[in-house]
Amino acid sequence: MKSDVITSFKIREVEFKNRVFVASGTFGYGNEINELVDINQLGGIFTKSLSLKPRKGNPPQRIVETASGMLNTIGLANIGVHSFVKEKLPDLKNYKTHIITNIAASSKEEFCEVVKILENYSGIAGYEINVSCPNVKEGGINFGTNSKMTAEIVSKLRKLTERPLIIKLTPNTTHISEIARAIEDSGADAVSVINTLIGMAIDIKTRKPKLSTVTGGLSGPAIKPVALAKVYEVAKAVKIPIFGIGGISNTNDAIEFLLAGATAIQVGTMNFVDPNISVNIVNGFKRYAVENGISDIGELVGALNADVKYSVLQSWL
Amino acid sequence: MKSDVITSFKIREVEFKNRVFVASGTFGYGNEINELVDINQLGGIFTKSLSLKPRKGNPPQRIVETASGMLNTIGLANIGVHSFVKEKLPDLKNYKTHIITNIAASSKEEFCEVVKILENYSGIAGYEINVSCPNVKEGGINFGTNSKMTAEIVSKLRKLTERPLIIKLTPNTTHISEIARAIEDSGADAVSVINTLIGMAIDIKTRKPKLSTVTGGLSGPAIKPVALAKVYEVAKAVKIPIFGIGGISNTNDAIEFLLAGATAIQVGTMNFVDPNISVNIVNGFKRYAVENGISDIGELVGALNADVKYSVLQSWL
Amino acid sequence: MIQQVCEVQSCQEVAEKIFRLRFYSEEISNSVKPGQFVNILASENGVGPLLRRPFSVSRIVDNSLDILFHAVGVGTTILSRKRKGDNIDVLGPLGNSFKIDGDYETAIIVAGGIGVAPFPFLSTELIKKGKTIYTLLGFRSSNFKYSSYLKNTQIATDDGSEGFKGNVIQLLEKFFENNKGIKSAKIFACGPTVMLKSLAKHACEKNICCEISLEGQMACGVGICQGCPVEKNNVDMDYALVCKDGPIFLADQIKL
Amino acid sequence: MIQQVCEVQSCQEVAEKIFRLRFYSEEISNSVKPGQFVNILASENGVGPLLRRPFSVSRIVDNSLDILFHAVGVGTTILSRKRKGDNIDVLGPLGNSFKIDGDYETAIIVAGGIGVAPFPFLSTELIKKGKTIYTLLGFRSSNFKYSSYLKNTQIATDDGSEGFKGNVIQLLEKFFENNKGIKSAKIFACGPTVMLKSLAKHACEKNICCEISLEGQMACGVGICQGCPVEKNNVDMDYALVCKDGPIFLADQIKL
Ligand SMILES: Cc1cc2nc3c(=O)[nH]c(=O)nc-3n(C[C@H](O)[C@H](O)[C@H](O)COP(=O)(O)OP(=O)(O)OC[C@H]3O[C@@H](n4cnc5c(N)ncnc54)[C@H](O)[C@@H]3O)c2cc1C
Ligand SMILES: Cc1cc2nc3c(=O)[nH]c(=O)nc-3n(C[C@H](O)[C@H](O)[C@H](O)COP(=O)(O)OP(=O)(O)OC[C@H]3O[C@@H](n4cnc5c(N)ncnc54)[C@H](O)[C@@H]3O)c2cc1C
Ligand SMILES: Cc1cc2nc3c(=O)[nH]c(=O)nc-3n(C[C@H](O)[C@H](O)[C@H](O)COP(=O)(O)O)c2cc1C
Ligand SMILES: Cc1cc2nc3c(=O)[nH]c(=O)nc-3n(C[C@H](O)[C@H](O)[C@H](O)COP(=O)(O)O)c2cc1C
Ligand code: FES
Ligand code: FES
């Protein structure tokens, strides 16, 4: 669709051509399914989480379907940062979209090492830091539930790179806005909201958990209302851009996230259902803008018309 | 169905004839739909949250359907404890099931006052304390996200009653097990897990939140995986009985909750879809027991066969 | 009030995207009153929308009930595909009903769009009571028109494709001009909120008793969830429940 | 690999709860190889299960593909109700394929239950290559039997209602006893994990090359989610992906 609608936005020096991205772990390293999807249409691609060393991931069963959602326990299976830059990055440079490498690690030092390695390569638009990982050195507590630990990671990484630094937050915490503020103060350029919710399913025949690791991450349309509330909460707390994520399955869902305060959105689980959903949303945004006389999609960001009386987020009953 | 299966269990001096209950706010005060459901079949009924004074509740729109779930912002609309004991309780005594009054309040003192009033009446089997309420006196922070505040409420109420004291926990917190331990230590007899998740939905035409209060509580099958993980987490942290709640829509779901560690279950949202689901589960439990050679449904409680290696709950990716 | 799995006897498209579905229920058809509704599960084995969908009872034929609905979303689309012999899970009859008795002579029915649904049933009962009926219906366009089983019908369409060009409230104004002789009338109405609002004002000015049927988001449909409030026009501004205290209200009783 | 909305040409119940659905796709039918699968969306407009459902391609007829499936749950039940003219959203062809070439003379097909699905297609291709085929099929009971478009078929049923009474592995043992002369054979198999496990042991003992088709929970079906691992039999014990490295594996390559 040809139109004069402005779709682009910038983070630091990087200009993204539109506000539609694919989420980490739901699109491989970026070019695996380019037979199915024209990835040149996308604002950008968040890669599967990369760790310093390759990880084989968790034992099967890694996936369970749930009501309007799914649980996964992939266990950060990935080829490692070294193989990524050698085997994947060269080809990814051929596409007219931005690659943001998502990084997972089990210590602050590991996060730094991975970024240092990636800094040596061109073709990477920025970093998304997956802090929904256990901090192995400090008793396995999840980085992302602790604002001090998260802020420390951000401060350290900030010194290493001028590229956009995007921190991906976990929803499994009481006050996501506290964490968001801490990372904004430490120099992060943007936040991604949300990663998966902790969930579980049991096989009543065997009386065993369905997932090999007992619990796993819940994603998909089921979590959309939770994700939207978290984006709204974070948007009220920080000024840096937000990537809204969680259960987005069509243009209307995506617009809800923009209105709640997301600067851009990421499509996750629904890539598995329909690989072209993200491209459809790119076009859907333009169509919506034309139909509603909007000249820049950015006008929608945070344009929610909400009663300030209800500024404390509650699960009213 | 006639069978020799033991279905009952006890909390303090109260014997419940089975492990299937209806959840607060999803079954009125108990006898409103007895034309549709034989409530004598139930282990018990948790009433709509009662407050000291009647509450008219939040403005419309109070309800939104979401993918496999719903959001609500009823705003604790209820007739107040005085009308309850006068208008509802006398008739409720005619049924062969237990009435547990759920209580909501905006201060510690209000919780105590309501319990003091109810202590004067027979026909009440116990109290369920809804701590997913903002503490108006302390800046509106939700009681249920703070273990100190929650523990204080329990200690105070414990002095007022010998009836079972069941604390209903919110999932909107990082470490639900901490709160559970705090209330166990303060003398609670049981916990109910979980109340609704904070969620939100937006009308993209009007650009307004669909709920009058912007955010509301997410319930229904969508949240079942989250609820199950929370029950499992709490079961590993405390010894007191757990009422498992969240998206239960059939016998299999209910059995999952028992295996994860729930002593009994509550059916919530699905009462709206099929008022007889709870009675069906009562029969379903018996059938399952007979088919699997189980003599006491209690054998299923916590009978999950899980690898201890994965004892830290994670949303693995 | 009962919950029952009922057999569908027919389902036809009677106007553009407007369907009439007939199902069998001796119990419900024998106890239901005009204005009451049924709450239907549009899903099967968990496939389909979670919550039941409310529909006014449109007509009673022997021991069966008709609902008339507009296929606007997931639930109504699923229902529109039901065929003779399929089963649907129905809860009903629910809510209060139109007050037919009273010493008015003329019943003026005013409906906008699919708001016409409850009036075939109401008309039958009004006729039994010997009331004179005038029926004013408004539609966006003639292809959405449904006017069967109604008495003395006048049509308004927004686009003028049939009858009066304009909305049903304008048609009502014209009707009053042309029928100055009418006394002791009562209005029964159903339709979009904007229409009801404007109607309520007219009825109040003319001092005509006006009963309206409200729609609104529902979860349980039986008064246990408190999910369907409508603000009352009293000093306390407290709420009535559409599913239990309604869906029929006196127009001046509530804040539209 | 393409994503395509395809027209259903027929859907029939060919044995108890076993359905054969045929859909049209020039592109997929022309590129698919035996053993590959398609990933089908069983829902419409968000009504139905979230994830796609994988099915082996069972047969190619002109420019159409057959899938053969057991209606076990929500998705397969929805698919079983598809009728001529309905549309389904298909992703395929996916995965690797059976290795037909090689200097073996005899192909022994071993299938348990719905594991028979990929073999009509495989048989056609084996015949083209001039291989001799023996087909051993096991079913719980004769009413679940499907044995069309296969060559030299022998049946085992658990309840003895047809053919050999016992499981298909016992039938295979008997087959080997009766056919001691067979040399340079290759086994192609699909079925429940217990069956494949026991088969792998036999094949190893007899030193016969054995290719098996695996099932397993999938999300994407195209190798991007890492959701379908199977443990390899190598020293690292790392994982292969059923959807991309499989679904066809050498029996001794993986830990069943
Ligand atoms: C007491 C009562 C009686 C009703 N009687 C009839 C009737 O006789 N015929 C008829 O066609 N409809 C009637 N309705 C409205 C009908 O219930 C809705 O159209 C239906 O629930 C939509 O379901 P869906 O799954 O198709 O739409 P959804 O996919 O849920 O929604 C599609 C669109 O319809 C809107 N919508 C959803 N629910 C309602 C609702 N309850 N009221 C208004 N808009 C809604 C949504 O906001 C959305 O824009 C009645 C509603 C009530 C409360
Ligand atoms: C590569 C591959 C090829 C396949 N080919 C065929 C085929 O040709 N014919 C056929 O009938 N089936 C085949 N299957 C299995 C088929 O995909 C499942 O039966 C189907 O997904 C079940 O969907 P459902 O919604 O009906 O069941 P659900 O409601 O999802 O589940 C019903 C029951 O089936 C089980 N189940 C769900 N998914 C699978 C699965 N992937 N494998 C095994 N059990 C499962 C569940 O645990 C549950 O007990 C194949 C699977 C794979 C991975
Ligand atoms: C199978 C799967 C794998 C994922 N892997 C990662 C990952 O490696 N790193 C990460 O930060 N998020 C990962 N995620 C989380 C998603 O990026 C996204 O935050 C989450 O799924 C919520 O969005 P959705 O509901 O649209 O899927 C994964 C999600 C799924 C379903
Ligand atoms: C409409 C509605 C009203 C509710 N009201 C209350 C309430 O007053 N007090 C309370 O403790 N929980 C209330 N709940 C929460 C339920 O009791 C239950 O904890 C929650 O809905 C999760 O269970 P479910 O998924 O089975 O519905 C309410 C839930 C709903 C849907
Ligand atoms: S819909 Fe539940 S009270 Fe009206
Ligand atoms: S199903 Fe996604 S990688 Fe195999």
Describe the protein's architecture and organization.
The complex is a heterotetramer, with two copies of chain A (317 residues) and two copies of chain C (256 residues). With 317 residues, chain A is of the alpha/beta class. Chain A is built from eight helices and 18 strands. Chain A has helices at 80-92, 108-119, 147-158, 176-185, 224-237, 251-260, 270-273, 277-291, and strands spanning 9-11, 14-16, 20-22, 44-46, 63-66, 69-72, 98-103, 126-130, 134-135, 141-142, 165-169, 190-193, 197-200, 202-203, 208-209, 215-219, 242-245, 264-267. In chain A, a hairpin with a 5-residue loop joins β9 and β10. The mean pLDDT of chain A is 94. With 256 residues, chain C is of the alpha/beta class. In chain C, 19% of the residues lie in helices and 35% in strands. Chain C is built from five helices and 16 strands. Chain C has helices at 26-31, 74-80, 119-128, 168-178, 193-206, and strands at 2-15, 18-24, 37-41, 53-56, 59-61, 64-70, 87-94, 106-112, 132-139, 153-157, 164-165, 185-190, 209-213, 229-231, 239-241, 248-250. Chain C has a seven-stranded antiparallel β-sheet. Chain C has a seven-stranded mixed β-sheet with strand order 11-10-9-8-12-13-16, with helices on both faces. In chain C, α5 (193-206) links the parallel β12 and β13. The two termini of chain C are 28 Å apart. The model of chain C has no long low-confidence stretch (mean pLDDT 94). Chains A and B meet through β6, β13, β15, β16 and α5 of A and β6, β13, β15, β16 and α5 of B. The structure holds flavin-adenine dinucleotide (2 copies), flavin mononucleotide (2 copies) and FE2/S2 (inorganic) cluster (2 copies). Residues 23-26, 48-49, 72, 74, 76, 102, 130, 168, 195-196, 219-220, 223, 245-248, 267-270 of chain B line the site of one flavin mononucleotide. Residues 218-221, 223-228, 241, 243 of chain C line the site of one FE2/S2 (inorganic) cluster (FES).
